[in-house]
Structures are given as C-alpha cells and as structure tokens.
Design brief:
single chain; 155 residues; nine-stranded mixed sheet; 9 strands; globular
Length: 155
C-alpha cells in the first residue's frame, strides 16, 4: 500500500505498521460520501481494518444515507485521526463496495464489537451482533488507494 505524507511541513508516518496501529485503535473513522446534490456527507463510524485484505469494513443499514450515497457513487474519502496531542492520523481515498452476505455481515459485526467493546459478551456487543442479523444490515468495504499520514509527535 502506498503511504504518502499529508503535508511536507509535518512529518508523516512511514511504515505500514504505524498506519495499522492507528487503524487498529478505537478511534472513529470519518467517512465522506457524496450525496444526491453532489455535496459531501461526512459521518463518524466504528470500523474494522483487515490487514490481510488491506480493507476497511463498516457495519450499517441498507437504507443509511451513506449506503444510498455509495450506491450512486462508490468513491469515498476517509480519515482516522487522534485529536489528542501529539496529533497524528491516516486518511485516504478509496472505492467502496456494499456486501450483503449474511455470514460476512455478522463476522464484521463481531470484529467491530471485539475492537470497540473488547468482548462479545458485553451488552453493547451483543446488541450490535444481534443488529447485524437483521435483513437490512450490510457491510461497506472500502479498498483504499493510498494512505496519507501525519504525526506531530515526530516534529
């Protein structure tokens, strides 16, 4: 995966391991899609990053605004950044795909639950996994084209 520096005046993150440490954190992903009026729509989301596939996975509803936007235009932009000093983050552009396979949807719900709740027996995790079994639950897969990074801690 190509890693580029977001700003030549601020040091970037140079290794895929550093990028993955941010993507594995409990930070939210900000997802930008384009709506029916050609305006950006940005939403904070929980997500799961699969290192083996280099893909970002989001659980949502088939009727969610972001899903409807992606059906019209699969091009997205995303950002995962830490608002605590020292500021650092990863952003990028990608192409998204809607996955409706029930097994995959539940698998991603479990991975997101483990990431953010730490265990599948947490009440919130149970609710998220139960929600993934509804007929309108889908997964958005983002295939990043690159990662653009910054790290104020390296200044």
């Amino acid at each position: 995966m190509k890693i580029i520096n977001a700003n030549t005046e601020i040091p970037g993150i140079n290794s895929i391991e550093e990028v993955e440490s941010i993507l594995d954190s409990k930070l939210n992903l900000q997802l930008a899609t384009i709506d029916e009026s050609d305006y950006p729509n940005i939403q904070p989301l929980w997500f799961y990053y699969d290192k083996d596939k280099s893909g970002i996975f989001i659980l949502t509803s088939i009727n969610a605004k972001k899903t409807l936007n992606i059906k019209r235009n699969p091009k997205v932009y995303f950002s995962v950044d830490d608002c605590n000093i020292p500021y650092r983050g990863v952003k990028g552009r990608g192409v998204s795909t809607i996955l409706e396979n029930q097994t995959m949807v539940t698998e991603i719900a479990e991975k997101i639950s483990l990431k953010y709740y730490g265990a599948l027996n947490h009440p919130g995790a149970k609710a998220l996994v139960d929600r993934s079994k509804q007929k309108d639950a889908i997964v958005i897969e983002i295939n990043p084209k690159f990662f653009s990074t910054w790290d104020f801690g390296k200044m």
